[in-house]
Specification:
The structure holds 2 protein chains of 2 kinds.
Chain A lengths: L1 E2 L6 E7 L13 H9 L10 H8 L3 E6 L4 E7 L4 H13 L5 H19 L2 H13 L13 H6 L2 H11 L5 E7 L5 H6 L12 H5 L10 E7 L5 E9 L5 H15 L5 H9 L5 E7 L5 E9 L4 H14 L7 H18 L3 H13 L18 H8 L9 E7 L4
Parallel strand pairs in A: 1-5, 6-10
Antiparallel strand pairs in A: 2-4, 2-5, 3-4, 7-9, 7-10, 8-9
Chain B lengths: L4 E6 L5 E9 L12 H9 L8 H10 L3 E6 L3 E9 L3 H13 L5 H18 L3 H14 L12 H6 L2 H11 L5 E6 L5 H6 L2 H8 L13 H6 L5 E5 L4 E9 L8 H12 L5 H9 L6 E4 L8 E9 L3 H17 L4 H17 L4 H13 L6 H8 L5 H11 L4 E6 L1 H15 L7
Parallel strand pairs in B: 1-5, 6-10
Antiparallel strand pairs in B: 2-4, 2-5, 3-4, 7-9, 7-10, 8-9
Helix pairs in contact in B: 1-7, 3-9, 11-14, 11-17, 12-13, 13-18
The chains are: A alpha+beta, B alpha+beta.
Chain lengths: 400, 427
């Protein structure tokens, strides 16, 4: 719960440990498909009734499925929060999964897959994850495959729902003006009626380690207009917040803003890339640092050489205080700026609490001072070297 | 002389200040043969001004962990600054310098021009972009809204410092508006006034203001000869855009169209979502593009679907379109549309950046600061019949743009020519 009494809207965000990595063999895509099906009605709500009710209150709703978890969120005026809470819990915890709606919504998901297929950027990323996480669920698309979706059934989905949407796997976050007597409302809600017996079986689907494969792959992608160079590195999982913050500092120092090393050198000085970004994707079973550069194909060799040169040079000397201070400021303000909207606050609080890390919102920043220039140099920059990466080169498809 | 037009919106925000500086004259004011010149100028404002060269400026901004950018839209350039309140004084003076003394360093011009050219090329990867490009070109032709704010490759390649400098004098002349929202210090107005950059701004002689002609777009386009545009691409889906240039923000019928927008495309209870996605499962992403503009804003429905469902999808889009003028919305649908309109205002006022931008936008459009509150009262007076009449007045000449595999597009073109050009009979 994050009380923000002046906010014009209140956000209710229900999180569940039911992302694509909790799918068993044969269930590929079902976590995301279920997220769609939830909106098709529940034991009390007809198809479309939820959306109509929430939007008639002046609110909105949406949902997102990730590798690790899924969340359903509602934004409503504060006076409507209690009503919205009952609707949301009923919708997510007791979905109807009717046969007819299932067949129609499967068509929608197949269209979603087709739509992403037409975005070359998404295809490049998909190929990279497939190559570097081949055996792990992170290596396959969250949306699943056409074949697995076509074979799936409502019964199978019901099985997935009852296996994953259990008490210990769920977490509700609320940000904004908090309704009075919320605790009492919650204790009489459907959330309180969930099965809270922690079972070993629930956790079984999880593979603790990401078996990251280093290497290199060159591919051609249809309809690509400029060449992409992607590099990715394995990082510790989300629960190791100290390392995650260290990686955040390193990527900011290397590639966020015009004064970062890679942007300054490759885009501003040599002018051989259109863009170069580097970011950490924080995941429960092993995070990933991802670097992406867009350039003309004729510059590709030089771009790769210069990136390698700068990454290696980062081991030659400790970073300057000034550049580290710049990175710290960008990260602290970035977090601060992102917490203006209630949906961001609820999202951050909810995902942290879901994975048993309830903490003040700004707590991650407390790790920053420990990352001195010397420590960054000794413990983080050596992890981000070319030889530890998986590199993917994607070129425009040659005309046949 | 143009004194600083300042709008203040103090709100409790955790140590954050957002500043939005709107400068009239965007891509719609690009001179002939110079499409992209405003965007290029906008991108260079953050690359050196006043006492700061491009490196010193980036050091200052990034050193404070702040965000500074300039986005060029059709109607104007928007400079956005977001920073911690303690850094506001140091950074706000930059906004003044950007307007009165941008350096336009030749090497930086070359870099930004090259980045724009590459971005233009990379946009072609997105079939939605291609479909919209085709639609825009058909709907606005050589008019002010007829090209992407990024410009046009052939024109961009010719642009240099001379063309940019000729625009600089007009930056502070067209009554720019600075809106600030957040944790504002009490003496902000005085401290802005005492900054050298803002003082010099108001000392500058005023060149004659440039006349904007984007308001005249609407009726000309209705005469556009063609109403179909095809972009052949070997994609898995067909992207469809159906719509027409509509009204300027503040036009007496604009509010009616905004309500139709809520009814058609806002949220999962909207007509497009229900009809295309829930009832027929033909598309994932459906919606409406209806931005706020000074001139005739696009009012465009969009959907993407696989080849075998394309015919049905087009038919459904057309049904949704013509329904608006064939029958009045039910009182239930009206109530829902009003609730969404109300909700949309609250959703759009959550951050200091959103609030400052809306305040600046209203000021630039010459609309009162309480325009949105006033609209909430006005919509109570609109009923189903008045929306139907507005649709009959303004939504009668839809144009269709398609992007996808050639064979599908040919079939759809036949369907379109057989039925769509004749508006359905209006009862």
């Amino acid at each position: 719960m994050a009380s923000m009494p002046d906010a014009p809207l209140t956000c209710l965000d229900l999180w569940c440990k039911a992302g694509s990595s909790s799918e068993n063999k044969g269930e590929e895509g079902i976590a995301h498909f279920l997220e769609h099906m939830v909106f098709k009605g529940s034991n009390h709500l007809k198809a479309g009734e939820f959306d109509r009710e929430i939007e008639a209150l002046g609110g909105s709703s949406n949902a997102a499925t990730g590798f690790d978890d899924v969340h359903f969120h509602v934004l409503v005026p504060p006076t409507a929060a209690t009503a919205a809470l009952d609707l949301l819990l009923n919708l997510v915890l007791t979905p109807a999964l009717r046969q007819e709606a299932y067949a129609t919504e499967r068509e929608v998901v197949l269209e979603e897959i087709a739509q992403f297929q037409d975005q070359p950027d998404d295809q490049v990323l998909k190929q990279l994850l497939k190559a570097c996480c081949e055996e792990h669920p992170y290596g396959r698309p969250i949306l699943g495959f056409e074949a697995s979706l076509k074979e799936s059934t409502p019964e199978q989905m019901r099985g997935f729902h009852s296996r994953r949407y259990r008490g210990p796997n769920c977490c509700l976050a609320i940000a904004g003006a908090i309704p009075k007597e919320l605790e009492e409302i919650l204790s009489n809600s459907q959330l309180a009626q969930l099965d809270y017996k922690a079972t070993d079986e629930v956790e079984l689907a999880y593979q603790p380690n990401l078996n990251f494969r280093k290497g290199r792959l060159e591919i051609q992608i249809p309809r690509l207009e400029s060449t992409r160079l992607l590099m990715t590195w394995p990082m510790p999982p989300a629960k190791n917040q100290e390392m995650v913050m260290g990686a955040d500092l390193a990527t900011t120092l290397l590639a966020e803003g015009r004064r970062s090393r890679l942007v300054h050198h490759l885009r501003e000085e040599l002018q051989i890339v259109e863009s170069i970004d580097m970011d950490i994707t924080v995941l429960e079973q092993g995070s990933l640092v991802l670097l992406e550069a867009c350039c003309h194909e004729k510059q590709l060799k030089r771009v790769e050489k210069e990136i390698h040169k700068l990454l290696r040079a980062s081991l030659d000397s400790t970073p300057k205080n000034q550049e580290l201070e710049r990175a710290r400021q960008l990260i602290s303000n970035g977090l601060c700026f992102s917490l203006e909207a209630v949906s961001q606050v609820a999202g951050l609080a909810g995902s942290q609490a879901l994975w048993n890390r309830p903490q003040p919102l700004f707590a991650p920043l407390e790790h920053l001072p420990a990352w001195t220039p010397a420590r960054l140099h000794k413990e983080m920059l050596p992890l981000l070297q070319p030889e530890h990466s998986f590199t993917l080169i994607a070129r425009p498809m040659e005309a046949s | 002389m143009n004194p600083l037009d300042l709008v203040l919106d103090p709100v409790t925000a955790p140590g954050v200040i957002a500043a939005k500086l709107w400068i009239k004259g965007g891509s719609s004011a690009d001179p002939q043969g110079q499409r992209g010149v405003h965007q290029l100028l906008g991108s260079l404002l953050t690359r050196g001004c006043g006492p700061y060269d491009h490196l010193a400026l980036a050091d200052l901004v990034e050193g404070c962990g702040a965000g500074l950018r300039c986005d060029t839209h059709e109607d104007g350039m928007l400079i956005s600054l977001k920073c911690a309140d303690r850094d506001a004084e140091r950074l706000l003076s930059l906004l003044g310098w950007m307007l009165i003394d941008p350096h336009l360093d030749p090497n930086q011009v070359k870099l930004e021009r090259e980045l724009s050219l590459q971005a233009l090329q990379r946009q072609r990867e997105d079939p939605f972009h291609l479909a919209f490009d085709g639609w825009r070109n058909m709907a606005y032709g050589n008019g002010p809204y007829g090209h992407d704010p990024l410009g046009f490759s052939e024109d961009l390649k010719q642009l240099g410092r001379e063309q940019l400098f000729s625009l600089v004098d007009r930056l502070s002349a067209n009554s720019p508006v600075l809106a600030l929202a957040g944790n504002l210090p009490a003496d902000l107005e005085q401290s802005l006034g005492s900054m050298e950059s803002f003082q010099r701004w108001s000392d500058k002689p005023t060149p004659p203001a440039m006349k904007s002609d984007s308001g005249t777009t609407s009726s000309q386009n209705a005469l556009s000869k063609t109403n179909l545009s095809l972009q052949n691409e070997p994609t898995a889906q067909v992207v469809m855009m159906l719509g027409q240039p509509s009204l300027s923000h503040g036009h007496e019928d604009d509010l009616a169209l905004r309500l139709l927008n809520c009814h058609l495309g806002l949220g999962m209870s909207s007509l497009l979502f229900r009809r295309l996605r829930e009832e027929h499962g033909v598309a994932y992403d459906v919606g409406i593009h209806h931005p706020v503009r000074e001139g005739a804003a696009p009012f465009v429905l969009h959907a993407s679907t696989s080849e075998e469902k394309a015919q049905l999808t087009l038919q459904l889009l057309l049904e949704c379109w013509w329904e608006l003028s064939q029958q009045p919305l039910s009182e239930e649908d009206m109530a829902l549309a009003r609730a969404k309109f109300h909700g949309q205002l609250a959703h759009g006022a959550q951050t200091t950046g959103q609030r400052a931008e809306r305040r600046a936008q209203l000021r630039v459009l010459g609309l009162p600061a309480n325009y949105d509150q006033h609209s909430l009262e006005e919509i109570k007076n609109l009923d189903g019949i008045s929306l139907q009449k507005a649709a009959q007045r303004h939504l009668q000449t839809p144009m269709l743009s398609l992007c996808g595999p050639e064979a599908s597009l040919q079939n759809l073109a036949k369907d379109w020519q057989q039925q769509a050009v004749k508006p359905y009979l209006i009862a």
